[in-house]
Amino acid sequence: MNKSDRTSLKYRGTKCLNCELPLEKSDSYCPYCGQINSTKKLTLLDMVEEFFSSIFSYDSKLRKTLTALILRPGKITTEFVSGKRATYTNPFRFFLSVTIVYFLMISYSSDFDNIDNTVNDFITKDSLFIENTLASLKESSISDEDKKEIDQLIKKYQPKEALETTTAPKIQFEKLNNKLFINRTYDKIDFFYDDIKRKKYYEYDEALKHLKIESSIENKITFKLAKSFYKTYHHPGSFFATLIAKLPFIIFILLPIFSAFIWLVYSSEKFHYIDHIIFSFHTQTLFTILLTLTLLIKWLFNINLHGVAILIFFLYLYKSMRGFYKESRTKTIVKFIYINTIFIILATISTTIIVLVGAFTF
Description:
Blueprint: H1 3-6, H2 44-71, H3 75-81, H4 91-109, H5 112-139, H6 144-157, H7 169-175, H8 181-197, H9 204-211, H10 217-234, H11 236-265, H12 273-301, H13 306-325, H14 329-361
């Protein structure tokens, strides 16, 4: 049974089964939501036909979008904002899809577990080297005051069983409450970090039980930060894997902010803010496609073309600005420099914030 059978006159109803809009018998489709006007019960074959129909429809849109995006810089944005939207895929959805694919490829190509193991091996060997070096210094001819300082440093790098102290942990911790807020916060993070490193506890409830202290917002926050710092330092591969998984959505949020700076230099009534957003998503989609291609070439031929991809993108961005905003070469070059400067500044600030927030919450 094909689609034409489902829309035959004998199966047509007097209202849309999807949005309940009143229909005439002459209506093959609902003019409001586009659903087929048919009261016939769906069969498995109908479902299969609809599935492949939607795939071919999207494939046609995707092909037209890629062709216009790659071969006609700026033209696709011009046509999309002027109302030709059914021809192309949604720029926001397309950008998110391409970006997710790219970062999935990065995650697949990066051995984050190996990074974790390498870092942990280095930390262990480095700690043993420092401990042995300090022990050798202690045996040499140095002052008693220097020996005391070396003892404190050795204590820091010794294994768990050698670190038991005569002072009760609760008393040590509560002494920190007498300090000023900033110093107290720093020292509590350091205290919790040191205990986590020594494997005395790993969860907040375990810390409260071990130290015999009351729970508080300050203690909970400082413990969380200490644990996050420990995990980030000892498991950088896992940290970056988590960060990479969030990047497509972070970039998706940042692009509208970047578009506001474009709006500042193209503030004429001819362009609206949403036009600049669509332009940003189209150009960044092309950039992501270029990075994806360079990654594939790196996999297949072990050739690094990231520098070439960036140069191609700069040329593409200039052509897109000329094609969409239709200004003179001089004005376009000046605004091109401005836009890229703003992008670099925003990228640097946002990357710093993302890494710091990621480290705090990892």
